[in-house]
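In response to the reviewer comment on reproducibility (Comment 2.3), we provide here a single inverse folding case reported in full, input and output, so that an independent group could reproduce the run without further information from us. The structure tokens appear first.
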């Protein structure tokens, strides 16, 4: 009886799952034709790589994006000796969207995350790099949502 109930619930859950990927090409109604940014800006470079994709370019709205990003790292707290204990990494991105009719919209995105200092500087650098990637992914998600709602 118990196995029958588990199978019945499994079949019900599988058949009722209306899973649709968030970044499905079927739901995209725009095409990013160009992304402009400062060549020294590593965050904007990472965002532009994620935003430029190949798709059906004929039936989509053509967009040009201008991205300007900044990375700030600051010390949140120090120990009794004056050594940093906690850091905050903050990424701010300004996005200007130009469509084919020269209509312009400006969006500002900001993400921050705090983390603890580590005695092993290599692990600290790796953690900082992973934190930066996580924040870039969060901003990318926000940009995708704003492009879809436009």
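Designed residues, in position order:
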């Amino acid at each position: 009886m118990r196995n029958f109930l588990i199978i019945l619930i499994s079949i019900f859950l599988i058949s009722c799952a209306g899973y649709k990927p968030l970044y499905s090409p079927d739901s995209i109604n725009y095409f990013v034709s160009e992304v402009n940014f400062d060549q020294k800006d590593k965050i904007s470079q990472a965002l532009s790589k994620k935003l430029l994709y190949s798709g059906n370019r004929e039936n989509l709205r053509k967009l040009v994006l201008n991205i300007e990003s900044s990375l700030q790292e600051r010390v949140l707290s120090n120990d009794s000796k004056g050594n940093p204990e906690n850091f905050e990494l903050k990424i701010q991105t300004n996005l200007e969207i130009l469509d084919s009719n020269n209509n312009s919209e400006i969006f500002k995105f900001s993400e921050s995350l705090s983390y603890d200092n580590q005695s092993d500087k290599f692990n600290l650098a790796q953690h900082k790099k992973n934190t930066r990637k996580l924040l870039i992914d969060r901003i990318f998600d926000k940009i995708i949502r704003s492009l879809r709602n436009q």
